[in-house]
């Protein structure tokens, strides 16, 4: 075996992807982690946006199990699931199915449309211009993700809570999240998981099949509603997962992933200083 670690192995190590996987063990380890963070910090709430996608469905159920675990140990804690639609969400029924499955202590709904639209409007009134409508829509999309972050941190601030993020290895590798938007969180219980492992955990937790198998979407762009992550990325999650789990992938996929990983390093680090 070569002494020089392959880029594939190095990236998998840096993103904490484990060589083996057992869904039940991972559920236990991650629930204990969340419950311990509550007890150790003395904070009393977990706060997470529930979109109807498989990542927040999975993380949400782990959060509810964790607060129940913390309460059983005598610590006062609640899980606040947040619905954060931009206006009317096309797949609202999936979000409702997720809430029904998670059975959170509390649901708090905040429409991020007024704040997101006002932010864009004041920027334009202030003189910001865009190259075209598509660029404006893309920037507006990141504003929506950051409005969700603002809403979750407001709740955490008022309720002595921790904001939960849904980042995992299959998203972290491509930097496919909004910096300081959905990328901002206090705890990230899905760390190190590939997308298929997130789905396996969702299934083991008993999530409905339509959510376990739901195609991922950031759903941030008004001009391309429900745009699939795989179309935006030009990469399939199966290939991303294979790469992270040490399986062979086509050379072009490997090159694209290594390039994206390097280009998005700044999103996984704290800001640089001199
Ligand atoms: N080399 C560098 N060193 C330090 N900072 C650097 C940098 N290059 C850019 N930056 C900064 O980073 C900014 C770009 O990052 P960012 O603002 O995030 O913007 P960007 O990466 O361009 O857009 C976010 C992407 O993530 C996708 N997304 C967002 C939210 C959720 C999901 C999902 O899967 O659900 C996906 C979204 O569809 C979009 O494709 C730049 O404007 C600049 O401020
Ligand atoms: N409409 C929404 N309502 C509430 N939270 C949201 C909404 N959209 C995004 N979020 C939050 O932002 C996170 C990142 O979105 P992302 O699309 O990566 O995850 P997901 O929707 O849970 O799963 P998937 O990636 O499979 O679509 C979500 O997990 C959720 O916490
Ligand atoms: Mg989604």
TrEMBL record:
Molecular-function annotations in GO: ATP binding; glutaminase activity; metal ion binding; NAD+ synthase (glutamine-hydrolyzing) activity; NAD+ synthase activity
Known pathway: Cofactor biosynthesis; NAD(+) biosynthesis; NAD(+) from deamido-NAD(+) (ammonia route): step 1/1
GO cellular component: cytoplasm
UniProt domain NAD/GMP synthase: residue ranges: 27-271
BP-aspect Gene Ontology terms: NAD+ biosynthetic process
Sequence positions that bind deamido-NAD(+): 146, 179, 186, 266-267
Pfam families: NAD_synthase
Keyword Magnesium: yes
Name of the top EC class for this enzyme: ligase
Residues reported in the UniProt entry to bind ATP: 49-56, 166, 195, 217
Enzyme Commission designation: 6.3.1.5
Annotated positions binding Mg(2+): 55, 171
Keywords: ATP-binding, Ligase, Magnesium, Metal-binding, NAD, Nucleotide-binding
Catalyzed reaction equations: deamido-NAD(+) + NH4(+) + ATP = AMP + diphosphate + NAD(+) + H(+)
Assembly and interaction partners: Homodimer.
Record function comment: Catalyzes the ATP-dependent amidation of deamido-NAD to form NAD. Uses ammonia as a nitrogen source.
Family indicated by similarity: Belongs to the NAD synthetase family.
Protein name stated in the entry: NH(3)-dependent NAD(+) synthetase
Organism in which the protein naturally occurs: Micromonospora pattaloongensis
């Amino acid at each position: 075996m070569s002494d020089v670690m392959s880029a594939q192995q190095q990236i998998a190590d840096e993103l904490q992807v484990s060589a083996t996987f057992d869904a039940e063990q991972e559920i236990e380890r991650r629930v204990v982690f969340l419950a311990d963070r509550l007890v150790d910090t003395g904070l009393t709430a977990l706060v997470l946006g529930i979109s109807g996608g498989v990542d927040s469905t999975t993380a949400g159920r782990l959060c509810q199990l964790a607060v129940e675990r913390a309460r059983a140990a005598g610590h006062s804690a609640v899980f606040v699931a947040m619905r954060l639609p931009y206006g009317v969400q096309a797949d609202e029924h999936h979000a409702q199915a997720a809430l029904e499955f998670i059975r959170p202590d509390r649901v708090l709904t905040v429409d991020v449309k007024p704040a997101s639209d006002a932010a864009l409007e004041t920027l334009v009134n202030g003189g910001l211009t865009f190259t075209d409508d598509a660029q404006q829509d893309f920037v507006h999309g990141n504003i929506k993700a950051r409005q969700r972050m603002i809403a979750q941190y407001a709740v955490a601030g008022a309720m002595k809570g921790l904001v939960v993020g849904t980042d995992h290895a299959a998203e972290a590798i491509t930097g496919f999240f909004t910096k300081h938007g959905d990328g901002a969180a206090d705890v990230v219980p899905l760390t190190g998981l590939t997308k298929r492992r997130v789905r396996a955990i969702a299934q083991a937790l008993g999530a409905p099949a339509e959510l376990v198998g739901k195609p991922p979407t950031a759903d941030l762009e008004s001009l391309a509603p429900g745009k699939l992550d795989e179309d935006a990325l030009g990469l399939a999650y199966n290939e991303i997962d294979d790469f992270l789990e040490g399986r062979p992938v086509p050379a072009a996929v490997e090159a694209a992933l290594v390039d994206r990983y390097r280009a998005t390093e700044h999103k996984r680090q704290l800001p640089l200083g001199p």
